[in-house]
Amino acid sequence: xxxxxxxxxxxxxxxxxxxxxxxxxxxxxxxxxxxxxxxxxxxxxxxxxxxxxxxxxxxxxxxxxxxxxxxxxxxxxxxxxxxxxxxxxxxxxxxxxxxxxxxxxxxxxxxxxxxxxxxxxxxxxxxxxxxxxxxxxxxxxxxxxxxxxxxxxxxxxxxxxxxxxxxxxxxxxxxxxxxxxxxxxxxxxxxxxxxxxxxxxxxxxxxxxxxxxxxxxxxxxxxxxxxxxxxxxxxxxxxxxxxxxxxxxxxxxxxxxxxxxxxxxxxxxxxxxxxxxxxxxxxxxxxxxxxxxxxxxxxxxxxxxxxxxxxxxxxxxxxxxxxxxxxxxxxxxxxxxxxxxxxxxxxxxxxxxxxxxxxxxxxxxxxxxxxxxxxxxxxxxxxxxxxxxxxxxxxxxxxxxxxxxxxxxxxxxxxxxxxxxxxxxxxxxxxxxxxxxxxxxxxxxxxxxxxxxxxxxxxxxxxxxxxxxxxxxxxxxxxxxxxxxxxxxxxxxxxxxxxxxxxxxxxxxxxxxxxxxxxxxxxxxxxxxxxxxxxxxxxxxxxxxxxxxxxxxxxxxxxxxxxxxxxxxxxxxxxxxxxxxxxxxxxxxxxxxxxxxxxxxxxxxxxxxxxxxxxxxxxxxxxxxxxxxxxxxxxxxxxxxxxxxxxxxxxxxxxxxxxxxxxxxxxxxxxxxxxxxxxxxxxxxxxxxxxxxxxxxxxxxxxxxxxxxxxxxxxxxxxxxxxxxxxxxxxxxxxxxxxxxxxxxxxxxxxxxxxxxxxxxxxxxxxxxxxxxxxxxxxxxxxxxxxxxxxxxxxxxxxxxxxxx
Length: 805
Hints:
It holds the Pfam family GGDEF. This protein is 40% helix and 26% strand. The protein has 30 helices and 30 strands. It has an eight-stranded mixed β-barrel, surrounded by five helices. A five-stranded antiparallel beta sheet has the order 6-5-9-8-7, with helices on both faces. A five-stranded antiparallel beta sheet has the order 11-10-14-13-12, sandwiched between helices. α15 crosses α16 and α18 crosses α19. The radius of gyration is 50 Å and the shape is elongated.
């Protein structure tokens, strides 16, 4: 019958224990009992003794069978419960409709009171319309015929579907569902009618506009007048669906995370694991079932990173967040660096119940960082400590010696004849000698000592915790013996000796700088003997050391006092005699020693680092000279400068050079950079990189002193060069009598085969010039044509050459 038909029902909800949990206005009016006095009482308190016993006996079958139960019962006045009409007798039908939760478990009943048989006020109110009863129930309420049409429904169903009461009269239950869900709903309806099953199904109730709302729908079979009906309710589970979707999203995020994630329960001493994600399994090698229930410390690397683990333990005990790094072991025993962030998770009462740990495997990062730190602090060729690490280790050794009242020995060592090895056997052989020497030195000292490569073929050793000078002497003698053995290269024994200087803390200095300077002075004296000698620093060496310091100070003053200046030597085309450019040559007008040529101060400047400010001055003055020539009408007259490895190995060297050219507004092609062939051989990778950057900038590039040593032609042909300059040795081998120079001719041919402009330097005779011209050398420079000129004289030379042309 439609919901609008009159009824005489009152209803309430009782839970699985038969306790009353809702009490509607109809019940209150029927029994004359307010909800305050009846809620949470068992339904049996409303019944007579016989009725209470019958309900108690039938309750288990109600739970198990899930079918509606109808009883004719007498109602009694509950003891201690106020009632509006205590004298009124009340007899009615009691219908109990079982209900189920989302998991299909019995959750209670809807109790409906009907067919009241007294004329009391309670009975009259109990005969109120069924609409009033079912509209107070949570969710939708419906009764279906076996053809799935509606007999009864509540307003909530109308609101959810958008159907009017008239439309509901002709609607079928299947009309309220999507086509994909209709077979499922139809099957469940048939199960109720045909087998009397109690069903629970989740589906979307579709409104007239096509929008769906997720519902948990229930259905049970009831019988009335010999006919079966389906009675059921529906609960809106949208919120539960949203929560489930959020949980599934979070679970997918945990599964997709690249970092390992674990959740542990907050316990006492141990915090057992409850969950790990797939990344945890991949990183550690432990499966979920192998990790659950264990404290995460089972992966700890024994004896490692105890301080970090103590910090973690303290944070867990204090229930606070922490980030630490330490080493763990994978299942296969392999160590890995674990960057771990632990965050406490509190419940609704603020009590910490769990911890979430996020593990980031930073093993590769740690290894890369360690590798970079090693590269920063170690020599690339030998793997020894470099200059930076040397100073740090020496200062640490001095601090330790101060505490322990012990000695520190600083040993300076310079190989004898190393340049000859490079020149005769090549740079690869020289590198092999250096690596062999490095291995010997390392094997001759203790692990606590330091072996460093200072530069080139110069080594420094820091011998720590020396108990006596006699002990130091024995160690130095062992070093000397290890250097006395030849190095075998390509089955050839190469003698490698060394001059050794020793300084001892605190006798020869109190600082790292003082000790290195003293050891250097002692080595200088050892080298002067031209033997493989060992010299300990003494007071008479101080004079030499101080002289070197004074010379270094005078170099600094030379820059500050503008004592340095440039001369310019012209380069001449050997075919037509035209001036093709100039080379800038540095001179020093020393305040005490007068005019100094480069050979008397540049080697020292290279050693003490003053070559860098000298080079900056040369570049500035050269650019000024190029600008002067341009103003005089000679805009395309390139000028070359010599650049040492110490200069071009500085970071951003080419960028600095470009900035200077921009400041003087010069085209890069007006500048030529000459790099010594021996410098290129020391670090081929760096040389190729710098020359490549210069080529991209547009600066001309030349190899200086070509042929003076061993030339690596395979390396040279890969370099982006524009010029090559014959060394002095090759030019001076040209015989004035025979007018022959086999070395010069060979080098000219090599240069042309490499498509380079060949320039000969230090040309001093007519015979040398004629030979070079005959053998198609492109350009020359030297005293035979012109001595180096001042800037004014060079400009006048160009003007004179132009006017006579």
